[in-house]
Design goal:
alpha+beta, 4-stranded antiparallel β-sheet, DUF5329
Amino acid sequence: MASFQLPRRALVALVLGLAAAVAQATPSASEQKLIDTLILRVSKMTTMTFMRNGNEHNAADAAKHMQAKFDHFKDDIATAEDFIDRCASRSEVTGKAYKVKMPNGSMRDANEFLNAELRALRQGGGGKPGAG
């Protein structure tokens, strides 16, 4: 009986290891809804300018870029915070942080700005886009 236990344990460990390797980190339905809502909010922030690698982009282009990056990295993203970190905070190519130019001309780090927007969404309303 003891000789059967070792191979059985090894088999269980192997199966669990393979399952973990195959598992993907795709977002839950609720996190997916938050990500979709955040991208939609960005698309409506027409009074703001989104800065990527020193270039200015309007809200619609910024939202399209975030969506494209999300589509590419979706298997690596489990939460809306992961989305912000991976798809909306910095360039994958240059590593430079994205910025948001506010209507008054001040600049905010995109990570900080979008996390504030996400907090507003999680608190249940969200209010006006860009108010976070």
